[in-house]
Amino acid sequence: MSMSFVSTNRPAFDAAMGDAEARRRLAAGIALAIVVGLACGLATGSTGFAPRDFWADLNGNDAALLLGQIRAPRTLGAALVGALLGLSGAIAQGVFRNPLADPYLLGSAAGAGLGVVLVLAAAALGGATISLATVAWIERVGIVTAAFVGALAGVSLTLTLASGAVHTLRLLLAGVVIGVLLGAVSDLITVVSPDALRGKQAFMLGSTGFLGWDALALMLAGLTLLVVLAQRHARALDALTLGEDSATSLGLNLGKVRLALVLTLSLGTALAVSQAGLVAFVGLVAPHLVRRRAPGTHAWLLVASAGMGAAILLWADVISRALIAPEELPVGVVTAVLGGSYLVWLLKQRTSA
To answer: Mean pLDDT, to the nearest integer, of 228-237?
Structure first.
């Protein structure tokens, strides 16, 4: 009897063991990519990727400034921003049961953009009556706050228009509508205040160049909290993959669960966007890579997607600094090219299969 049971379930057992081994390999690969990426980020400066110069910089008189205040916070910050976007993307794809969902679907990107444009326009228009130091302070501190508040405001408007998070399709449509409306308002403001357009463009392309230790502490605390909150709903996300009817039959309150998950991904997205601008494709590609290489439950997927997002943005930041040194490419452009190229390759693979 027992022999028959083992024989019947042997394929399922082998598949489970294979998935577990794939997860271990992927976790090791992500950890290695992050460690090597951190080292490469510290070794990349105004002359590009220069490992030999790194040792000279490390022992030089300006090591505390060059490495401690510029390269280290930027490199670590890129990893944290990527982790926030990867985690938020995994939640978004689980909530909407769609592998093409990303953290910006619910109006957070348009809201953050509008907040930034409002601050830049206010600084530009007020430059004639207030001191240049005050304008600079507004642009430096106000942009971060405005982007964070704007992203949350965009999601709040989406939830209000959709009457909560009960209906997935209504939530998606509301996100599209709010995104278009807030984007139109943002464009109208740049017409009135053209000086805000340049700042908006820099924000839309994404940058890790302004990250400091204070921003790192905030993002690390936020990421820790959001991972804990997401893990509490990991089983609910697993249930949602079975369909709404099945999830309801398991005792889930879909409205409350979706609302909690939407708020979690919105906070993660708002925190990442406020610090680094609109970095494209990381939240979309990171969960997809994890599912493709090492499928598993959402308890695994959420953490692995955060790690994958950290690795992707970390290496994208190195490429953006090294490719045309001493100039820099916007990191959002690099992630868009890498992510778009991967999706094109994947589409061709599936078309030819």
So the answer is: 94
